[in-house]
Every structure is written in C-alpha cells, then in structure tokens.
Amino acid sequence: MDFSTLSRGRALVGALLLIVALFVGGRYLAGGGSAREQPAAAASAGELRTEPRPRLVVHVVGAVKRPGLYRLVDGARIADALRRAGGSTRRADLTLVNLAAPVSDGTQIVVPKRAPPASAGSSGPDAEVAPAAGPVHLNTATIEQLDELPGVGPVTAQKIVDYREQHGAFSSVDDLDAIPGIGPARLEQLRELVAP
C-alpha cells in the first residue's frame, strides 16, 4: 500500500510539475513571441524609412535661400519645406503663405517676394497715394491702380488700358460704359472713385 500511495503521490507531483512547466513555458513563449514581433515591426519601420515611396518630393521656389527639390516625410508641413530650403529670404512675404498647410507629393511651394520699393518707385507711391488723395485718373492709371477699384479685376483693368491705347484718352467717366464687363451698375459704383 505504501507503494501505491507513493506512486499516486509521484503522479500528482509529476502532473503538477508538468502543469507548472507548461504554464511557465507558455508565458516564456508568449513573451518571446512578442519580442520576436518587435524586431520585425522595427525592421518593417526601418524599411519604410529607407524606401523613397513614403517620402514626399516638393519643389520650393521663390524667396527662399536654397530653392530646389526636397524630400520630406509624409505628414510634413509647408514650414518644414521652407526649413529644408534654408528658410525664407528677407524679401519674402510670408503673410501670403500658409506655413501650417500639409504638403502633398509633387507640390510646388511658391514663397512670394514683397514688392521692392525700387520697382514701385515710379508708379507705386503715386498708386498708393492716388486713391487716398482723390479719384483714380483713367487716362494715367496703371493696371495695378485700376485693379484696386471695387469690381474691377486684372482683366477689366487691362481692358481699360487697352481701350485707352486704341481709342485715346477718356473724355468722361461715362466712356467706361464701352468697356466689356462694366455695366450701368458698375459705372455708378465707380463714378465717385474715378476721373478722366
């Protein structure tokens, strides 16, 4: 009887040891499995970093220190592209650029320049002073000055200048009625703002 109780006890201890071994082995394999997945994930992330496909290529031009093509990571912003191009120059007008906008592959990013005082010297100060000092003169106004009038865009401004060159000086504000795109309502709106 001692032999049978001894073998039963051994069988129970053996079974318990086997269960513990299976439990510990399972935990080890589960921990080892996640450890194996991490390098695979790291390797796949490393592969993504080296492949050019997830990177974006943008063309940065205008008032930047180093215009050209630049590779950026997916999710980059226009500010990142400007940084890669060496930053903006002193003449850049960054108020016209949304630096927070995301970039997409194949985009051209244009950083405009502020109008230099020299280029605006002959007509710029007159253009800025004329609307404040009085009406815009149809016979001497530049396209830029005409474009600033309400309801007159660059196309209509060009038509006014072309009309002036083809038909001579405007003799009255009513002559604007001959310009395509300026109807009676627009003419009344402009009557107080312009002079021949």
What do you see in this structure?
The chain is mostly helical. The chain has three domains: 1-51; 56-111; 124-195, Photosystem II 12 kDa extrinsic protein (DNA polymerase, domain 1, Orthogonal Bundle). The protein has helices at 2-50, 78-84, 124-133, 143-147, 154-167, 184-190, and strands at residues 56-62, 68-72, 108-111, 136-137, 194-195. The strands form two sheets. The protein has a three-stranded mixed sheet, covered by helices on one side. A two-stranded parallel sheet has the order 4-5. A hairpin with a 5-residue loop joins strand 1 and strand 2. The protein is rod-shaped, with a radius of gyration of 38 Å. It starts with a helix and ends with a strand.
How far is it from the N-terminal to the C-terminal residue, by CA? 130 Å
Main sheet characteristics:
3 strands, mixed
What is the topology, as strand order, of the major beta sheet?
A: 2-1-3
Task: Assign the CATH class of the largest domain.
Answer: Mainly Alpha
User: Any idea what the shape is?
Assistant: rod-shaped
Q: Which fold name fills CATH's third level, the topology of the largest domain? A: DNA polymerase, domain 1
Overall pLDDT metric: 76
CATH homologous superfamily label of the largest domain: Photosystem II 12 kDa extrinsic protein
Q: Oligomeric status of the shown chains?
A: single chain
Strand-and-helix sequence, N→C?
HEEHEHEHHHE
Low-pLDDT windows of residues: 33-37, 118-122, 124-132
- Distinct helical segment count: 6
What count of domains describes the coordinates?
3
Helix proportion: 40-55%
CATH architecture descriptor name of the largest domain: Orthogonal Bundle
